[in-house]
Amino acid sequence: MSASPRPDIASILARSRAIPVLVIEHLEDAVPLAKALCQGGLPVLEVTLRTDVAEDSIAAISEGVPEAIVGAGTILTVSDITAAERAGSRFLVSPGAGPALLEAIAECRTPFLPGIATPSEAMTLLERGIEHMKFFPAEAAGGVSMLRSIGGPLPGLRFCPTGGITPANASDYLALENVLCVGGSWMAPAKLVRAKRWNDIAALAREAAAL
């Protein structure tokens, strides 16, 4: 029996023009934060594996917020993939992709968005059949002008730029033909999360969803 088709990262990225990149410090914030973002029209959520409660937060959102499409960010190692999948991640995001991670991506059944910052890195992924990539750190790596330049020689690639994206520049990125969506943290700033101001976060999400 042939294997079922690998889930498509493109279909996930197409669900939202802006993807919140979340650093969750307290587990009790995970579900209300996810609900607020979904209510604001941002169902695709990236929870970074940067805190001790990240995996439990992904699991809590997966169970408690069925309308959310929750994934794991800051995937650095093969063990990160295992942990993220165990928690219920529906997609995975990495800031870059070394040889070991590239081998793991080839075997991974969960949709994966690996990161690049240069044309050479993009070509390395393209050689492996990967056409959807995270552009990181977007502003530091050349921003809109870099992505526009990459689009000439590599027209088939599509990107989710992350890193330095704000409401002031998000529309410039989204206007590019090779950008499907942007990632950022401005919809859920730490000060609002710590203050549990979920209505304010939902309002920021609505603004981001309207980009």
User: Largest sheet, order of strands side by side?
Assistant: 3-2-1-9
Order of helices and strands: HEHEHEHEHEEHEHEHEHH
Radius of gyration: 16 Å
| CATH-defined superfamily | Aldolase class I
Mean of pLDDT: 95
Q: How much strand?
A: 15-25%
How far the N terminus sits from the C terminus, by CA atoms, comes to 44 Å
Largest sheet: 4 strands, parallel
What fraction, in percent, of the residue positions are helical?
Answer: 40-55%
Q: Tell me which oligomeric state these chains represent.
A: single chain
Short précis:
The protein has a 4-stranded parallel β-sheet with strand order 3-2-1-9. It has a 3-stranded parallel β-sheet with strand order 6-7-8. It has helices at 9-13, 30-39, 54-64, 78-87, 99-107, 119-127, 143-151, 170-174, 190-194, 198-209, and strands at 18-22, 44-48, 69-73, 92-93, 112-113, 115-116, 132-135, 158-161, 182-184. The chain is of the alpha/beta class and 211 residues long.
Please tell me about this protein's structure.
It is a single chain. The protein has 211 residues and is of the alpha/beta class. The protein has one domain (17-209): Aldolase class I (TIM Barrel), CATH 3.20.20.70. It contains ten helices and nine strands. It has helices at 9-13, 30-39, 54-64, 78-87, 99-107, 119-127, 143-151, 170-174, 190-194, 198-209, and strands at 18-22, 44-48, 69-73, 92-93, 112-113, 115-116, 132-135, 158-161, 182-184. Helix 5 links the parallel strand 4 (92-93) and strand 5. Helix 2 (30-39) packs across helix 10 (198-209) and helix 3 (54-64) runs parallel beside helix 4 (78-87). The longest helix has 12 residues, at 198-209. The protein is globular, with a radius of gyration of 16 Å. It starts with 8 loop residues before the first helix and ends with a helix. The relative contact order is 0.18. Mean pLDDT is 95; it is low at 1-5.
